[in-house]
Amino acid sequence: MNGNETYDTRYYATRQKILSEAYQIIQSQGIAQLSMRSIAAAVKSSPANLYEYFANKDEIIYELQTMLLDELAAHLRTVDTLLPSRDYLEQIGAAYLTFAHQHVALLHLPVEATTELDVHHRTHRMYNAAAAAPAVDRTTSVFEVLYDAIKHHHAAMPAGYKSAQVTTHERAITFWAFLHGAATLHSLTDRSDYALAAWPALFRAYMHETEATACRSVIPANIDLK
Prior knowledge:
The protein has helices at residues 3-29, 36-42, 47-50, 57-76, 85-102, 105-108, 128-132, 140-156, 168-188, 199-216. The protein is mostly helical. Helix 8 (140-156) packs across helix 9.
């Protein structure tokens, strides 16, 4: 291994250490306690040294969001795709809530953080290509899993429940909003009706409402749905 490769390896390892310590601070103390100073103390360095690896705190947050969303997508893909469509959708939700429970940092990272910061001023050879590339939607990997689950379930529904007025894309967004809301509530309170164990009941209530709404959209209003 030549000197450049050794330097690149150390550079990458230090970046990962900084991200790991930033994640631990958010997990244990909350996003309000995250600063370049607190991260520097955790990695036993000075705040000034961190700027060799990250332009600012927002870039660290961006990298953490990307990492956690990729890990969440991978976790969702462990759910058995051979399950009946409704059971698969329920287990996708359970996997999402379990991951969010274990990684509360995901729920507290500010969504406004972007890479359109000062990243392009860096000239380190290891990140030239990445810095020149266009920004990537960090939500894509997770959304694809949820979209496929919703699409599969919708295809399996009886014809009377299928509404052309609501697209699969819209259903997937709604389901994700429901999951993220449930996960956030769970992180904020000890109430039993927001606990992980309450998920099956919450899921049944959600599906009852969404399927009933879809049914109403294709059945004349004078038909009594009970």
